[in-house]
What we know:
Elements: E1 6-11, H1 14-31, E2 35-40, H2 43-46, H3 62-69, E3 75-79, E4 91-95, E5 104-108, E6 121-125, H4 128-141, E7 145-149, H5 154-162, E8 168-172, H6 173-178, E9 187-188, E10 203-208, H7 212-218, H8 224-239, E11 248-257, E12 260-271, E13 278-286, H9 291-307
Helix pairs in contact: 8-9
Amino acid sequence: xxxxxxxxxxxxxxxxxxxxxxxxxxxxxxxxxxxxxxxxxxxxxxxxxxxxxxxxxxxxxxxxxxxxxxxxxxxxxxxxxxxxxxxxxxxxxxxxxxxxxxxxxxxxxxxxxxxxxxxxxxxxxxxxxxxxxxxxxxxxxxxxxxxxxxxxxxxxxxxxxxxxxxxxxxxxxxxxxxxxxxxxxxxxxxxxxxxxxxxxxxxxxxxxxxxxxxxxxxxxxxxxxxxxxxxxxxxxxxxxxxxxxxxxxxxxxxxxxxxxxxxxxxxxxxxxxxxxxxxxxxxxxxxxxxxxxxxxxxxxxxxxxxxxxxxxxxxxxxx
Length: 319
């Protein structure tokens, strides 16, 4: 491979720059080559519309992929939960590094935990998935909350709480951790309360399919367990024909016996955003040894969910 600097395409947000910077450091270590960040503005960054109205989180990805295809950058870093489930033929996921904490968290006024929020509390989130599960939990546990749709970066969202406009906001633990702001969390939401988005907490390192040398070099950052887990989660999302902004939560856990990973448990939920109806199922089996095996696991659980009426809870299904 040459010694010229590798160009890493990244969104401009503080979170994107933080996680891309961490990947750049790792790529420098494994390749011995300099890496420069190339900042790219996506439609999702400039639009103020709610994500569900403009095509979901995939709007953060298109501009990065276009830059890759034009040869303006050598590879790109995405939050995996933002990636549409259909992979372009000209691009490849060269690495899925070790996953960060996949949980959602609350940042609330007065350092309150979710279950301690007073009646009528307003909780901000831009995610139908989070709305559906928070409202469902509130209904079954006698909590009185109002979920409020919001957009904006981490500073903007936390600012709504500091400014008194909202009592709390929901964010991803992984993002705050990568930004060095995990100490601002007032409550970590249990996986049993809110299942994360498929792929949440994981990063995707993508490059052109023809660049075999770069694919091989970036492959050193791949974590097989993370990849098999997110493959199953994203397969379920695809089989539900749901986009990245649909009210679908999914998490594949690797279950260990001592130091040996023996099984994988895939849990998933679909619900109406008001929390009145949900379909939640799980399946446990041997850890899939192949990409196709992980895909099959996701499809099988999705089929069970569809048989229980999941399609009717998602509103308009993605085409």
